[in-house]
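@channel sequence for tomorrow's demo:
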Amino acid sequence: MNAARAQRLCAFISCFLALAAQESHSETLKSALASAYANNPDLEEQRAVVRIRDEDVSKAAAGHRPKAGASFSAGPQKSSVRQPGGRDQLRNRLYTDDENFGHPRSGTLNLSLTVFDGWRSDNSMRQAESGVLAARAILSAAEQEVLLHAATVYMDVLRDTAALGLRKHNRAVLMEQLRVARDRAEMGMATIADVAQAEAALAQAEADHVGARESLRASVVEYREVIGHAPVRLEPAKGCERDLPTTAEQAVERAVAAHPQVISSLHQVDVATMTVKVAEGALMPSLSVGGQVFQQYDSYLGYPGTRQFSAQVTGTLNVPLYDGGAEYSAVRQAKQQLGQAQVHVSAQRSAVRAKLAASYSRLATANAALHYGGTVVRSSERALQQIRNEAEFGQRTLLDVLNAQQALFDARVKMVSAQHDRVVASCSVLAGIGGLSAESLNLDVDRYDPAKNLEQIRELWIGLDTPEAVASPSIP
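structure tokens (generated this afternoon):
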């Protein structure tokens, strides 16, 4: 008895652990979004784009820093000099030849510092910083697109899984319906037409089952590409409606002010403004100071032991007068680009409003489909049961039963699609107002800080290696 009880206890513990392990492998929408945030290659690529733009700030800062250079030369030198041999010999046109062979060597060290360049370096710094902020806003937009895509594929798998289950059930019911029709036909209670209709319905159900299976397979493949792993026991999702503004007007107001695409376009206006100022700086005078140290050995006609040394400090003032008009054209072109950037802000706001309105429409449609879909399903269930009862007494044909069953199946499929559409549309609305991010969703993931790389390289005067904290990120 004790052995039997111990065996039953072990079996219970094994079942409990198996269920716990199975439960631990279930996945929620938030965990899937966190996985996509950490592993999606498109997001990693956009983060790399921001790090590339960070280097523009470091390059612009070089305009305020001194510049140094050194040059060295060495090599054999042969010299041949013919000169008069003396006064008497000169009248007799007599000369002496002197040949020397040496190894002259020289070195030069140059230092320079730009004191004033028409504020081009300062404006270039502001231009680069605005470009970085624009790239970060694009990164935020990319993050929203990736998370929205992840939510969509998550719901695609849930929808296609449920649809496949419904089609399996529908196929099983139709197989039973065909069996009953054949039995009734053998007893003379059904016609050949009834059997043919049941066979046609079953054949269509078989085709729909194959289509549903392949749709699920395609959704699983896309899920793996976006999320980073295959789906495992996906939990139902509630969507993002609780995070949305109470009214559509508030959503539009928030979207045109805080959507990443709008923020990026505003920073692009700043970039274009600084581009104008940089171009105007080319018309202003510049002032620089420099120093040079020069040392040379054995350079005078190859004679060994000769030496030459020089050192100088210079100030250079450059005043541009006219250079063919290229600078003026550059200023006009930069102003045209500024006008284009300002127009682009309005275009982005219009696009955001239109996209948000479409998302709200899809959300309203999905909510209506869910609200009325439940009534449709319940009514279709009652109708099917009543039609089956009437068919038992010959008051309904088999075609009536098949049609009622198809109506119920369609209503259930539409309910599944409506649940899918509601979650996706709510996430789309949240993305439309700029709120679909790892921070706003409080995802359990290490969040990427785009400012960290710039902090590490802003004052970096020398070095070839990228910062270790962000260099060469590993992509699973």
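heads up for whoever presents: The longest helix spans residues 120-186.
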